[in-house]
Structure formats: structure tokens, C-alpha cells
Amino acid sequence: MGLYAAEYKSKLISPEGAAALVKSGDWVDYGMIANIPELFDAALAKRVNELEDVKVRGGLASKPLQILEADPEGMHFTYNSWHLSGLERKYAAKGLCHYIPMNYSAQGEFYRRYLDVDVACVEVTSMDKDGFFNLSLTNSSTLAILEKAKVVILEVNEAMPWACGGSRECIHISQVDHIIEGPHSPLTILPAGKPTEADIAIAKQITPLVRNGSVLQLGIGGTPNAVGTLIAQSDVKDLGMHTEMCCDAYLELYKAGKLTNAKKKFDQYKGVWSFALGSQELYDWIDHNPGLASYPVGYANDPFVVGQHENVVAINNCVEVDLFGQICSEAAAFRQISGTGGQLDFLRGAFRSEGGQGFICMASTYTDKKTGETKSRITSAMPAGSIVTGPRTNAFYLVTEYGMVNLAGCSTWERAEKIISIAHPDFRDDLIKAAEKQGIWRRR
């Protein structure tokens, strides 16, 4: 620890001592994803009967939140998520998790301009000899949170990889009030999952449109991973990476010799990302890798930054699309499924890019878990309780296993025709009838 050993030692505190700093009525911030503090969360949960109206922010939590496990009626802690994980969906179903709407690129500005943070605690790497802790797998808006917090607590997890920057990927001990040490459970692993037949069919349509030197953004889900796998097997070369999420698809592209970042207009030879989620091999690849650059999401997701690259290819999933071209990627029947995230950011960024292409992908149908009925993901109009993630003005390429269409510049009747053409054949006649009633079907 060198010059900072004494200061480090003076700031050490037990998890219980750190949790004791929280007062009733406080806003507490956990950061997001891999930075959510395990030891502090457990210690804060033990104070459940001492505290009232403590509001906690987090996002994409993958391990049980002890404050919620200790307070199953939500009488003491109110948990709020920037983007719901599968676990957080379960909490939301019990009324214990509340979504915070945002375009991901704006999150840091939300903290700087509008939000209060009384206590912030996040997981970080061990301190280096120069007194810096690394934010590791979640740059995102973590430093903005810590800069806004009245009390800054770091929880050291020695297993976390050191992510090279970029920008704002570290915090110095001089900016920290307290440090927690202790054993942690293993880092969260997100299995890539086996792509479905629909994922593969969609990927086969997109892959031929990827050019040498294209800059890729791959979202969460089976389709983006399937596209990455097919690209790794293709003849394209010198691909670039500018994304919010660093996932295993990029590692596969790198291992195949496709990901060089050599043709990028800026951040050349650097793969830009803001948070990472995937395999242990991915985390090992990130550790001290100067070919990867961790940036805050205000940079990685800024449409004006993304759009300065040429040939941006943005690939994301959605839940449903209506005949007007409105895209829902986050909710269904008043149930929040995930979040807006960076989808709209990258749709706009790809549009600004010379030669850019923004793809929204979906299987044409899904099976209703309650009834077993097959339903169309293409609907006549957005159902009640669905949320428009991408407005029709920002809907460009839509892809299902039945085809690909581009809605840019299309009138309402053209949109209806094109969207119905990629719906499952069993639903097309009913969709045409609906379009006629809605006045968006052309008389012939």
C-alpha cells in the first residue's frame, strides 16, 4: 500500500459500523450490478427494526438483497432499481422493488443535477500502491454516485478484476470516508445461454450486413449473442467495440481475431464499454487489459459520441412492437420486466453514424405461461400496461425470423404493411383487419 497504508488503516470500518451510519429517512445507494455491496447490505439488514423510511437505489442485482429478505413487507426499506434483473422482477411482484425510468446515458446527470445520496457503498477492487481503487465491472455512473454522496464507503472485494480506462474508472482513497474488508461470495456469472431457432434465423439476416470495420453494440439476450457468434465465424475483420455491456460475444470475436478496434475513428485499438456481465473467462480478459477501455455510461451511451463512429451496428431485443412501430422492450401488462437501458441511446447513435444500422429483434411469437396459448409479439396497438421504450420516430430496422424491414421515412400504412409482413403467418389476417379499423391500411 506504500504511502497510503496509514490512511487506509485509519479508514477501515466493520460492516456493522458502516451500516450504523445510515439514519431513518436516508437515501442509500448501492451502485449497480457487480458493485452492489454484499457485506454492507447484510449489516444494514440487521438494523431493520431500528430504521424507518430508508430508500435504497440499485440495479440488476443478481444476489438476494438482505434488506428485502429481512423486511418482506417493505415497512422499513424501499428498494428502487434502475434496471430490473430476474431477481428484482420477483421482488417487484411482491411490491418490494420499484423501477426508476431513465435513458441510461442520462443516469450520471440525474445524480449530479437532481438526486440526493446520503450514504453510498459499492464494491471495488483492492487499493493499488498509488491509493486508487478500481470500479471494476461497473463504471456506469458509479463515480457520479460517490461524488454526490455525503458519506462514501467502499467495500473491497479482492476477486474483482482491474478494468483499464477510459475515464472515471477509479476513485482515490482521499475521496473515501470508510473502507470495509471481508470475505465475499463468487462473482456473478451470466451464462450465455443456447440461442433459439428464432435467434439463429434473425442472426443470419443481420450478419451479412456487418461490414469490415463495423463498430458493434450488442445488447443483453440470445439474439445479440447469436449474432456475435455468427460474426466470429464469418469473413469480416477489423471490427470495433463501443457498447454499454461487455459480454462474452466480444470475447469470442476477439479470440476469432475479428475484434481489433483498428478502424475506429477514435478510441482506436480500444474496446469501449461501461459495465460487464458474463463468464469468469470474460472477467479474466478484462483484468488489466489495455485493449479494453472502461468509460462512464454518459460517454459510452451518448448518441452524439456513438454517432461519430462509422458503420455502427446496434443490435437489441424487444418484447413487442405495434403496427405504428412503437417498440416495447421493458414491460408487459403493467409488469416491469427490465428497463429502458441504452436501447434508445444506441438507436439514435446508430442513426447518426455514417453507414450506421440499428436493429430491434424479436421472435414473432411467445407462449403465454398461464394459458399455454401462442401469442403474437406484433400487436395492433400497444396493450394497456406496456411501455414505449422506442417511439415510432426512432424505429428503424425490425427483425423477426420471418424477415427484416426498415421503417425509416415510412407512412403509417407503409409501416403497417411492413410490420405485418414479418409477423407470424397465423396472425397476419387479424393484424390486417385491425389495421383497417385503425385507419392505417391502404385501400387498393
Shape designation: globular
Q: What's the main sheet like?
A: 7 strands, parallel
Helix count, DSSP H or I runs of 4 or more residues: 16
Strand content: 15-25%
* Structure class: alpha/beta
- Rg, rounded, reads 23 Å
Number of strands: 26
Terminal Cα separation, in Å? Answer: 78 Å
> Which residues sit in consecutive blocks of at least 5 with pLDDT less than 50?
none
Mean pLDDT: 96
What proportion of the residues is helical, as a percent range? Answer: 25-40%
The order of strands across the largest sheet is 4-3-2-1-5-7-9
Task: Note down, in words, how this protein is organized.
The chain is an alpha/beta fold. The strands form eight sheets. It has a seven-stranded parallel beta sheet with strand order 4-3-2-1-5-7-9, with helices on both faces. It has a six-stranded mixed beta sheet with strand order 11-10-16-21-25-26, sandwiched between helices. A three-stranded mixed beta sheet has the order 18-17-24, with no helix packed on it. Helix 8 (197-206) crosses helix 9 (222-232), helix 9 (222-232) packs parallel to helix 10 and helix 15 (412-421) packs antiparallel against helix 16 (425-437). The longest helix has 13 residues, at 425-437. The chain is globular. It starts with a helix and ends in a 7-residue tail after the last helix.
